[in-house]
Amino acid sequence: MTSLPIPLLPEAAASLAFTSIGQSSVGQSSIGQPMTAQSTAEDEQFLLRAFRSFSAAAAALEDSYASLRAEVERLRRELEKSNRDLASSLEREQAQAELSAVLAHEMRNPLASLELFAGLLAESVLPDECREWVAHMQAGLRMLGATVNNVLHFYSRPGAARAPLDLGALLEWAHEFLLPLARQAQVTLSLENQLAGVVVPADRHRLEQVLVNLVLNAVRAVAAGGWIELRGHTIQTKEDGFVELTVADNGPGISPADLPRIFEPGFSTHVGSSGLGLAVCRKIVEQHAGAIGAENRPGKGARFTLTFPLHADVSTEVPA
User: Fold this and answer.
1) How far is residue 205's CA from residue 182's CA, in Å, rounded to a whole number?
2) Residue 262: which of 246, 277, 245 has the closest Cα?
3) Pairing relation of β-strands 241-249 and 291-296?
4) Pairing mode, if any, of strands 291-296 and 302-309?
5) pLDDT digits (tens, 9 = 90+) for 79-106
6) What's the DSSP call for residue 239?
């Protein structure tokens, strides 16, 4: 029966090596020369140094492994703590979102009533001074309404309820609705509308909110005497057709440092702003398979561009 080789510990291997060298000292060296006591001693010293180096390396490796295990354990504990903190933070954010949505819902109905009342006053026969006050009231109510709707759109979970929408009519509505705000800021709001009769499947209320947000931002940015332009037209390529809506102004433009962040939730350069307006715009546009971009105009001012695909079938609702 063949016996299996038994592995030796380093100390045993060294001892065996020394014994073998001592036994062969009366024989020949590896190159055929007689081995002397001096060469045997040198070989023993070399092997001893080699095994000492091996032992030191093995000890260092063991220490490194122990340190690595300790570091992995520390990172595991930190990750578990981070996950617990994240879960707690998400729960708090969810509660805040639900509370914000409830408050926004509670505010929207009274705001709608006030807006209706202000509209009736604006249509009635009033002295010029009173009509000016009514215009101020309408502008304030519409700005407040935009903020409430931003909260609702940002935290809402249902998808966009799409139906056939005439984009030309949407632009006409936006121009008329936002004129009081522009007049209050002493800014000219113009409209170039080439979309009359162009119909796409869209959620009208959500696209209204996008245009309101963009024009409100422009009103805040443009100085008295400046201008804002609403524009809509179609773009036809060999393969597809697109609709492009733009909101441009001659204000100070967007800081290059801020440009990459303007669509982030909570980011704003205006004191007291919720920072949700442009984030809501991007969310709504993407729900409609569109794209939104921002750039500085040559010379002065900013331009926001919305692009939507033209759909052949607009007779049915399309889920978001």
Assistant:
1) 21
2) 277
3) unpaired
4) antiparallel
5) 777 777 777 666 666 666 565 655 665 5
6) S
Strand partners, 164: 201
- Backbone φ and ψ for 107, nearest 5 degrees, come out as -85, -25
Question: Is 23 among the domain residues?
Answer: no
Locate tokens 């982030």: which residue?
264
Residue 275 in tokens: 């920072």
Cα dist from 66 to 53, 61, 174, whole Å: 20, 9, 68
The label of the residue with tokens 């592995």 reads 7
Specify the number of domains making up the chain: 2
Owning domain of residue 107: 41-157
pTM over 0.70: no
- The DSSP bridge partners found for residue 243 are 234, 308
Last residue of a domain, one of 102, 124, 157: 157
User: End-to-end alpha-carbon separation of the chain, Å?
Assistant: 77
Alpha helices in the chain (DSSP H): 10-23, 37-123, 128-155, 167-184, 204-221, 277-287
Give residue 122's identity as a one-letter amino acid code: A
